[in-house]
Specification:
heterodimer; A: mainly alpha; two-stranded antiparallel sheet; 16 helices; 1% strand; B: alpha/beta; Rossmann fold; 10 strands; 26% strand
């Protein structure tokens, strides 16, 4: 109950945020990225955090949603919401095929297979004609219920809605039979089986929930950006970013992925736009013409992946339970 | 009429060329406390793994509650009312003691509230109530064994397979566990019990089967078994004359 109130308060605050910062498309854009990564990471967490089945290929489900939606809109002029539902179905079919084969095995097979499946999906999208091949799919115009989809505001609320929905599922699962069973599977598969848990059924269930939610986010993202190609929605980097967000925030907790996204997405954005380098120079901390200044201005923007890596290493070394783990009392 | 709840019919288990269990047959009656004993490597745990569905048998049949269970998965066997513990305990380490037992209780209910009630009841029965909110991984071995017991009892089994539930425990702890086992039987469950400790076995068992090198060496009441020269030889080594 307490957690539901926290979600409601934060969602209410987030809903008012665009009014406060006005119509700065840049900041709304960053906030949309934060909400999307928080939701993606939370969806991944249901499978990876609760059930302990690390998927390294969630981009496949994101891409399935994005591509299905874009193809249906651009080629057949479907309603975007129909595209979203179709995306869920496609993502779930990919998930079911993967899961029903690989979840019979234990250990790291699922992790390895998830990369393989994601690469198969990526290479297929890159080489088929109906997916636009290397050129991707561009959408010149899209409409839904007469909303102004040129503005970012509808997508901000769309992402917020999906995030709240995902957190609601994550929270509800935690205290349900399925949630307990997934955690039992994570802790010890033999013990879980001996207590009456059908391992492959529950792993598949977690995968389907996770893949379905991820695909919804892919659909939303595609309509928001109006352009997709394989490097935008099917890249291994996206899969890794989702995992890192969850790990750094706190795997297996409801709030860890949200915290991870709130901290990491703006940090990556600051590095990418080189805000940090600019501030160091304009504040006179580093001289613009010194060797370090030139280096920072020239290179820091390319360093966000490096910074992600360093944070991850530090996180694994010093706080294996993520940032949220630091605040949890040990029982 | 006494019913055979479990019937082991000419069961063998080979690992490649190694014969771990060879042509074993016996029956367990309802409400029996049944002891399965034998020296290290006799095949006791292998047989347990076959019965509970973790190993497929090489040949033979296992009949539980009038149904062949050789080809069922462990979770299906659990739902038929057979639950097992592990010699090397398997606590769900990062979950609390209460949550561990709740997971057991979910095999008979879908409601979290009911599962929690069953779990609290079982923790009380084995004397773990004070530890309900502790992390299962942090318990000492004696309490982990009790947790194993509470967790399987929460599935309300017809038959319990206990694999060295007293192993590594001191005298008082063993007495407590044996007391719980007797109580569970009095409530109507059947118990099959692997044990090393002869004293514990003879104290509670109605019937004992002795395994040695994968084969059945003898079976009988505790008195018959403790007086059997072959059994004594197997336990003390072939060279001794008991």
């Amino acid at each position: 109950m307490k957690q539901i109130i926290i979600i409601a308060v934060i969602a209410g605050f987030a809903a008012l945020l665009p009014l406060a910062i006005g119509d700065s498309p840049y900041f709304i854009g960053v906030l949309i990225s934060v909400l999307m990564m928080a939701a993606l990471s939370s969806a991944w967490n249901i499978l990876g955090g609760y059930a302990g089945q690390y998927s390294f290929g969630h981009a496949a489900y994101f891409g399935a949603g994005a591509y299905t939606t874009m193809i249906l809109i651009s080629k057949f002029n479907f309603n975007p919401l129909v595209g979203m539902v179709a995306g869920i179905i496609v993502a779930c079919i990919i998930a079911l095929i993967t899961g029903s084969i690989v979840f019979r095995l234990r250990g790291h097979y699922f992790g390895l297979a998830s990369i393989a499946v994601a690469e198969i999906v990526r290479l297929s999208a890159l080489n088929f004609d109906f997916t636009g091949g290397a050129q991707g799919i561009l959408l010149s115009d899209v409409s839904l219920w007469g909303m102004d989809l040129n503005s970012k505001i509808p997508f901000y609320y769309g992402m917020l809605l999906v995030l709240v929905f995902t957190l609601g599922i994550a929270l509800n699962l935690r205290k349900s039979k399925t949630g307990y069973y997934l955690q039992a599977i994570r802790e010890d598969q033999d013990a879980a089986a001996s207590l009456g848990i059908n391992l492959s059924f529950y792993k598949n269930k977690a995968l389907l929930i996770s893949a379905g939610l991820t695909s919804v986010l892919g659909s939303l993202y595609a309509v928001y950006i109006r352009f997709i190609d394989t490097s935008a929605v099917l890249d291994l980097r996206l899969s890794i970013e989702i995992i890192l967000t969850a790990i750094i925030g706190g795997v297996g907790t409801v709030w860890g992925p949200v915290l991870g996204a709130v901290l990491l997405v703006p940090l990556a954005e600051m590095l990418r736009s080189n805000v940090i380098g600019d501030v160091l120079v304009t504040q006179g901390i580093v001289s613009e013409n010194s060797g370090l200044g030139v280096f920072l201005k020239g290179n820091l923007a390319h360093a966000h992946v490096l910074v992600y890596g360093i944070i991850t290493v530090l996180c694994i070394l010093y706080m294996p339970k993520g940032i949220l783990g630091l605040f949890r009392r040990k029982k | 009429m006494i019913q055979h709840l479990l019937h082991i019919n000419h069961v063998s288990k080979h690992f490649g060329g190694n014969v771990a269990v060879s042509d074993i047959s016996f029956s367990v009656d309802e409400k029996q406390i049944f002891g399965l004993i034998g020296p290290n490597g006799a095949g006791k745990t292998t047989l347990f793994n076959c019965i509970s569905g973790f190993y497929p048998v090489t040949s033979g049949d296992i009949i539980f509650d009038n149904r062949a269970i050789n080809n069922l998965r462990p979770d299906e066997i659990c739902h038929m009312g057979m639950a097992r513990t592990w010699q090397r305990v398997k606590p769900l380490g990062s979950l609390t003691v209460l949550e561990n037992v709740i997971i057991g209780a979910f095999s008979i209910t879908n409601s979290t509230k009911e599962a929690e009630e069953i779990a609290i009841e079982q923790l009380l029965a084995v004397g773990l109530s004070d530890y309900a909110q502790k992390t299962a991984g942090s318990l000492p071995i004696g309490l982990k064994k009790k947790l194993e017991l509470a967790r399987v009892l929460a599935t309300h089994p017809k038959m319990l397979l206990l694999d060295e539930i007293c192993g590594g425990l001191n005298h008082t702890e063993t007495e407590t566990i044996l007391g719980i086992i007797r109580e569970v039987r009095n409530k109507g469950a059947t118990i099959v019990f692997i044990e090393h400790d002869m004293k514990a076995v003879t104290a509670v068992c109605d019937w004992i089967v002795v395994l040695n090198s994968g084969e059945k060496l003898a079976e009988g009441t505790p008195q018959e078994i403790t007086g059997n020269p072959e059994v004594i030889a197997a336990y003390l080594g072939g060279g001794h004359n008991a």
